[in-house]
Amino acid sequence: MRRRGIFFLIFSLMLLTGCVTNNVEDTPSAPTAIDVVDSKITGYAYLDSNNNTQFDDDDLPISGAQFTVTDAGGVTSNGFTGADGCATIEWQSERQYPLTVNMTPPQGYVVITSDELVLEQGSSSAKFLFKSNTHAPNWDPTPYTNEESSGEIVSANTLYTLTAVLNYGAHFVAVDEQIFYTNRSTDKIGEILLVVEPQRYNGVFSLNGISLGDGSSITPAWDDSWLKLPLDKPLEPGQNLQLSISYELNLPYPQPSEIVRPVPFGYTERQVNLVDWYPFIPPYKSGQGWMTQKPGYFGEHLTYEYADFQVNITVSDVPVASFVDANTLGDEPVIGYAIAASSPPQIDNEWRRYTFESARCFVWSVSHAYQVLSKKVGDITVLGYSFPVHNIAGQTALDVTAQSLDLYQQIYAPYPHDTLSVVEADFLDGMEYDGLYFLSNGFYNLYTGTPADYLTDIAAHETAHQWFFGMVGNDQGLEPWLDESLCTYTERIYYENFSPEGLDWWWEYRINYYKPTGYIDGSIFSYNYTANAYEAYRNAVYLNGAMFIEDLRNLIGDEAFFAFMKDYVSQNKGKITTTTTFFDILNQHTQADYSALKKKYFQK
Fold first, then answer.
1. Of 113, 325, 332, 530, whose Cβ has the fewest other Cβ atoms within 10 Å?
2. Residue 398, pLDDT above cutoff 80
3. Cβ atoms within 10 Å, residue 26
4. Cis peptide before 333 (omega within 30 of 0)
5. Helices (H), ranges, 431-544
6. Cα–Cα distance, 492 to 472 (Å, whole number)
7. d(CA 587, CA 208)
8. Domains by residue range for the chain, with CATH
C-alpha cells in the first residue's frame, strides 16, 4: 500500500532535483523592472488530505492543474502539473519581476490558500493548497417517494444519494452521502449501524462529518469497521430518518494473495475499482438485530438489503480526457477512458448521473485503457470492459455473458436492470455485484479459444449471481451455499444449452477432478480449522453443492426442478432467503423423499 510519507519523500527529492520543465517561447516586452533571464519558476498543487489547511507530508499531489506565470510586463506563460503535482515554467528570454503566479485546479477541487501569489526577486516557486469539492450541479432525478399504507409498516427501500469526486491519478475520492432509511422491522431501533468496509484498510477512510437530516450532530462510535450511531429516541416501526455523511478515501493498492480472499477495492496501474465504497445500513431482522458478519479468510461476508441509488460521479486526472458513452457504442470497440458502473449514466458535462433502483449495491470501475464492447439482449445492453491486449478473450466474455443472461431469464426470471457489465480486473478470481461483475485478468490470459475453458465457465457463474445474490439475497457469511452452490450448478445448465461439447470437460475438470466432499451448509468460518481450509470450503460449498443440486434434479425430474427454481426466485425476489425457505418452496413442487440427500449433504 502506498503511504502518505512516501509522497512527502518524493516531493522533497523533486525540490532538490527539479521538476520536468515546459520550455516557453514568448515575445519579450520592454523591461520595466528587474530582469529575469533563463530562469525557472515552479508551482506545486497539493490536496489537503487531512483537512488541516496546512502544508504537510499528508498532502497528496494534484496533476492536471494549470500553472500560469505573468511578469510585470504582462507576458504570460503556462504549463500543467504532472503526477508529482509539479509544473515548471522555464524562461528563455528576459522577463521582469514581480511575477504573478496562478494555479487553477482540475474539476472537483477548490482553493484553500489564495490561487494567485506574487513572487518578488529571489523567489522562484509557489505552493497552492486545495480541497475536494463534491458539490454537484443541480440535478432533477426521478423523484423518490416514501409511500405510506394505512395500518402497515412502510415498505420503502433505503435510498443512498452519493456524490463522488475521483482524482484518478492520485487515487483519491471525496464523497458526500445522504441516506434515507425506513425502519421496516417490527422492533424499535435505538442505534443505527453503518457498515464501512474501507475502514478495514489502514489509512484509507477519513470521516469528515456525520449528522442527522435536521442538521443535529450525532456522536458515532467505531466497532471494528462498523460505525454505531446512537439515537436520542428509538426509531419506531415505519418511521424514517436521514443521515448526511462526508468522507474521503485514499485508495489502497492491494497485492494479490493465494492465502486470503481477493481484494477488489482499490487501484492498480490500469484501473480504479470502487466496490463497497460507501457506508451502508445492513438488513435488520426483527427480534434479532443487524445482519452483519466479520470477514473470513475466504468467501464473502456481507449481507445487503434491496436499496435505491442516486449517484453523481466526476473524474479528473486521467491520461485520456474523454469519456466513453455507452449509449453511443456501435459495432466497433471503443478504446480509452471509460467508467463501468452498475447502471447506465446520464451525461451532464463532466458529471455522470446514475439511478439504480431495487439493487443490492452500486459499484463502478474506471480505467484509461478499457476496450469497451456492447451487445443487446432484448432491451438490455450487455457491456464488456477489457484491456486491448485481450480483444479475443474480451469478446468471448461479452458473448458468454449475453448468452447466459438470455438463458437465465428464461429459466429463472426476467433480469430487472437496463445494463449488465463484465469487467476485466487486476485481482484474482471473479467477483459479483449487482449490475456488474469482475473477471480476473488471469482468465483472459489463459483463454484457449474453446468453451472448455475457465473464462467461459466463470463468466457463466458470475452472470448467475445476478439471480442468486442480486435478486435473491442471502447471508453470504453464514449460508454461502445458497448463492455459490446454485451459481456453480448454473454453469452446468449453461454448458448443456450452449456448449454441450464442453459439458464433459466441466464435470471432469471443474467438479470431479477435486473429488469434492464435505457438508455444504457450513459458514465461511466453518472450514478454518480444516487442512487446506480454502480447498475444503470450495470443495464443499461450490463443488459438492453443485453435486447436491444435480442429485436433486435427477430425483425430482426436470419439470419439477425447473418449476421449483423459477418459483424459488420469484417468491424471494428482493428478500434474504434461508435454507429453510429453500426446502419449504421445494416441498411445494415435489413429494419425492429427498431425506437421504439432506443427510448426505447437510450437517444441520
1. 332
2. yes
3. 13
4. no
5. 441-445, 454-464, 481-498, 503-505, 533-537
6. 20
7. 52
8. 4-131 (2.60.40.10), 159-504 (2.60.40.1730)
What is the spatial distance between Cα 540 and Cα 529, in angstroms, rounded to a whole number? 14
The neighbour count for residue 23, using CB atoms within 10 Å, is 11
pTM, rounded to two decimals: 0.85
Torsions phi, psi for 191 (to 5 deg):
-150, 125
How far is C-alpha 336 from the geometric centre of its chain's CA atoms? 19
d(CA 50, CA 69): 29
Phi then psi dihedrals of residue 543, to 5 deg: -85, -50
Q: What is the pLDDT of residues 408-420, one digit of tens each?
A: 999 999 999 999 9
The grid coordinates of residue 346 equal 446520464
> Using N-to-C axis directions, what is the helix angle for 391-411 and 454-464, rounded to 10°?
40
- How far from chain centre, in Å, is Cα 177? 15
Q: Which residue has the cell 493465494?
A: 258
Residues 398, 422: contact at Cβ < 8 Å?
yes
Q: Which of helix, strand or coil describes residue 138?
A: coil
Beta pairing, strands 334-341 & 284-285: unpaired
Are 18 and 40 in contact by the 8 Å Cβ rule? The answer is yes
Q: Which residues of 243-276 are buried (b: 16+ CB within 10 A; e: fewer)?
A: bbbbbbbbbbebeeeeeebbbbbbbbeebbbbbb
**Per-residue pLDDT, 31:** 40
DSSP 333: -
**Calpha distance 404→54 (Å, rounded):** 54
Q: Where are the beta strands (DSSP E) in 10-55?
A: 21-24, 35-36, 40-47
Q: Which residues contact 233 (CB under 8 A, 6 or more apart)?
A: none
556/550 Cα distance (integer angstroms)? 10
| pLDDT for the residue numbered 320 | 64
Give residues with Cβ within 8 angstroms of 6, minimum separation 6. Answer: none
What are the tens digits of pLDDT across the range 165-217?
999 999 999 999 999 999 999 999 999 999 999 999 999 999 999 999 887 88
Q: Which three cell numbers stand for residue 549?
A: 443440486
Distance CA 375, CA 401 (A): 10
Residue 142 CA: distances (Å) to CA of 118, 339, 380, 554: 48, 22, 20, 47
Q: How far apart are CA 372 and CA 351, in angstroms?
A: 20
CA distance 279 to 226: 9
First to last CA, the chain: 42
Q: Which residues on adjacent β-strands are paired with residue 103?
A: 67
55's CB contacts (< 8 A; 6+ apart) are 46, 127, 129
